[in-house]
Write a structure and sequence with these properties.
The chain is mostly beta strands. Helices cover 4% and strands 50% of the residues. Strands 1, 2, 3, 4, 5, 6, 7, 8, 9 and 10 form a ten-stranded antiparallel beta sheet that branches. 3% of the residues are buried. The longest helix has 8 residues.
């Protein structure tokens, strides 16, 4: 199967190809509804492979879905139209990978407990340029390991961070404002303050 979504509002065409979906053991019969149904989804998202393998008991008393989701090598730049970023922060390259365990609890009394994630998220060959095209930030790889987290509650629990070959280019203008990521004044003393600092103290200049 295939799906193409032409989002003219942001100027982005998203393509799903080679879509296959397999659902097994799904039944609402009393003698079978406690048997986990198995879902296997495989597709290419903008030409990059993604999979979802899950088990669930949607008709049982406990309606919980547990699965594994993977995505490999998805270019981050392709989804920039959906992000609002300052003009001087422009991701130029980078690919996203993840291997996540997903738990969806339909019986949860609270929204924040509806979704739980655990696994690994990585970004490779990531770089950012400023408004003039100068590279300001790059990293060969960034890998995060997530402990069980409830993102709908605004919390992600990171157990480890691995960073390989980070590079950053910073500086200040003559007026004390940052060259990047934004022109912010950062405490350059004015002329009066400098004059007061440099003025000699009253009294004898030497003791003999």
């Amino acid at each position: 199967g295939a799906l193409e979504f032409d989002d003219q509002y942001v100027g982005k065409v998203t393509q799903i190809s080679d879509l296959s979906l397999l659902l097994q053991e799904l039944s609402n019969r009393d003698d079978r509804k406690s048997i986990p149904a198995k879902l296997d989804v495989r597709l290419n998202l903008d030409g990059h492979p993604a999979t979802l393998a899950a088990v669930s008991t949607p008709f049982a008393d406990s309606r919980v879905l547990k699965g594994q989701a993977t995505l490999a090598g998805l270019p981050i730049v392709g989804f920039l139209p959906y992000l609002t970023l300052p003009d001087d922060i422009r991701p130029r390259s980078g690919v996203l990978d993840f291997q996540l365990g997903v738990t969806l609890n339909a019986d949860s009394p609270e929204l924040i407990s509806l979704l739980e994630l655990q696994g690994k998220v990585g970004v490779n060959e990531f770089s950012v340029i400023d408004g003039t095209g100068h590279e300001r930030l790059s990293v060969a790889s960034l890998a995060l390991a997530l402990e069980p987290s409830k993102p709908l509650g605004g919390a992600l629990h990171v157990s480890s961070i691995a960073l390989d070959r980070p590079r950053i280019s910073l500086g200040r203008q003559a007026d004390g404002k940052l060259l990047w990521p934004a022109p912010l004044a950062i405490g350059k003393p004015d002329h009066e303050a400098k004059a007061a600092t440099a003025a000699p103290l009253s009294g004898p200049k030497s003791l003999r």
